[in-house]
């Protein structure tokens, strides 16, 4: 009985050692997360998007790029956000690029005001980053949530008045009556 237990334990130890070399352990979530807000507007309007940071490590600095299609969006202005202590921000014609140092582990890195050139649909905004360096000089991986500027040139006509065909109805128990609803103006888009 004792020999069987020793053989069994030896076999289990061997299997554990072999499995520790073969098994791939999952990678933990990224320490640094970026996101860009979405926006909705009409052709010719200016909309603002924000690039935000959420980090579980105290970052010293990074490079962050927001890429856009210049045939669909035109940069009107851009500004550094509250998470930044110093740095540079510029527009290359296809991307707004930030390079600098952070003063907070979360918050707005920068904002961009875009004039919408596109007639309809979505215009993709893509985030990339590099050199997400902490105060000890270690570089961290990042994740990014991309977004869109959605163009909607649909004219919205709000409802001004809703009326029913009757002001009162008397029903017997279990009875029903269909009311006719009229929305004004007739071209209301939200009926």
Structure description:
With 191 residues, the chain is mainly beta. It is built from 1 helix and 14 strands; from the N terminus they run αββββββββββββββ. It has one helix at residues 2-22; strands at 32-36, 39-41, 46-55, 59-67, 73-80, 84-91, 95-102, 106-116, 121-134, 139-140, 142-145, 147-151, 161-164, 181-184. The strands form 3 sheets. Strands 2, 4, 6, 7, 9, 10 and 12 form a 7-stranded mixed sheet that branches. It has a 5-stranded mixed sheet with strand order 5-8-3-1-11, with no helix packed on it. It has a two-stranded antiparallel sheet with strand order 13-14. The chain is flat and about 80 Å long. The N and C termini lie far apart (82 Å). 18% of the residues are buried.
Mean pLDDT: 84
Apparent shape: flat
Strand coverage percent: over 45%
Order of helices and strands: HEEEEEEEEEEEEEE
Per DSSP, the total helix count is 1
Q: Structural class, judged by helices and strands?
A: mainly beta
Strand count = 14
Major sheet, described briefly? 7 strands, mixed
Q: What would you report as the Rg, rounded to the nearest angstrom?
A: 29 Å
Q: Please bin the fraction of helical residues.
A: 10-25%
Q: Which runs of at least 5 residues are low in confidence (pLDDT < 50)?
A: 20-29
Oligomeric composition of the shown chains = single chain
User: Distance between the terminal alpha carbons, to the nearest Å?
Assistant: 82 Å
Summarize the model shown.
With 191 residues, the protein is mainly beta.
Per-chain topology:
Layout: H1 2-22, E1 32-36, E2 39-41, E3 46-55, E4 59-67, E5 73-80, E6 84-91, E7 95-102, E8 106-116, E9 121-134, E10 139-140, E11 142-145, E12 147-151, E13 161-164, E14 181-184
Parallel strand pairs: 1-11, 2-12
Antiparallel strand pairs: 1-3, 3-8, 4-7, 4-9, 5-8, 6-7, 9-10, 9-12, 13-14
């Amino acid at each position: 009985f004792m020999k069987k237990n020793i053989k069994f334990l030896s076999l289990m130890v061997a299997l554990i050692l072999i499995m520790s070399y073969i098994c791939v352990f999952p990678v933990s979530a990224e320490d640094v997360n970026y996101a860009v807000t979405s926006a909705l507007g009409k052709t010719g309007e200016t909309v603002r998007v924000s690039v935000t940071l959420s980090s579980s490590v105290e970052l010293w600095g990074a490079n962050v790029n927001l890429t856009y299609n210049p045939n669909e969006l035109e940069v009107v202005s851009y500004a550094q956000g509250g998470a930044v202590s110093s740095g540079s921000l510029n527009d290359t014609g296809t991307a707004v690029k930030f390079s600098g140092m952070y003063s907070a582990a979360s918050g707005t890195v920068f904002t961009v005001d875009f004039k919408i050139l596109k007639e309809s649909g979505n215009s993709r905004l893509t985030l990339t980053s590099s050199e997400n360096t902490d105060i000890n000089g270690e570089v961290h991986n990042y994740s990014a949530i991309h977004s869109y500027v959605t163009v909607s040139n649909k004219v919205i006509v709000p409802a001004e008045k809703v009326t029913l065909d009757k002001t009162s109805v008397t029903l017997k128990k279990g009875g029903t009556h269909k009311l006719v609803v009229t929305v004004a103006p007739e071209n209301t888009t939200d009926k």
